[in-house]
Amino acid sequence: FVLDEADRMLDTGFEPDIRKLEDLGLPPKEDRCTSMFSATFPTEVQQLAKHFLRNDYVFLAVGTLGGANEDITQCIEEVPQGQKKDRLFQLLEQ
């Protein structure tokens, strides 16, 4: 059983659907292999993890929890509608 983008699934209202899987015959958490992936690990995802994962689950964090990747620079550039594709190609060529 795999839950990928668990944080996004909760953000978009899929928690009732995820929980409904148990009613549809999902084996008990002690009898299944479950993997849960999330870019962030807010309280809601932690609660879902406690519900779906065995008590001996492994939590693996890559990078700083709650922090953004410092190697990525973000910027906003306003581009007229008809020039967006050309500007994108210019940026990709850099």
Write structural notes for this entry.
- It is a single chain.
- The protein has one domain (1-66).
- 37% of the residues lie in helices and 4% in strands.
- It is built from four helices and two strands.
- It has a two-stranded parallel ribbon.
- The longest helix has 10 residues, at 43-52.
- The protein starts with a strand and ends with a helix.
- Keywords: ATP-binding, Helicase, Hydrolase, Nucleotide-binding.
- It holds the Pfam family DEAD.
- This is Helicase ATP-binding domain-containing protein.
- One of its GO terms (molecular function) is nucleic acid binding.
Which H/E pattern describes the elements?
EHHEHH
Q: What share of the residues lie within helices?
A: 25-40%
The biggest beta sheet reads:
2 strands, parallel
Which structural class do the helices and strands define? Answer: mainly alpha
Query: Number of DSSP helices?
Result: 4
Shape: elongated
Radius of gyration: 19 Å
Per DSSP E runs of 2 or more residues, the count of β-strands stands at: 2
* Cross-sheet strand order for the largest sheet: 1-2
What is the average of the pLDDT values?
86
> Which strand-content bin applies to the residues?
under 5%
Number of domains: 1
Low-confidence stretches: none
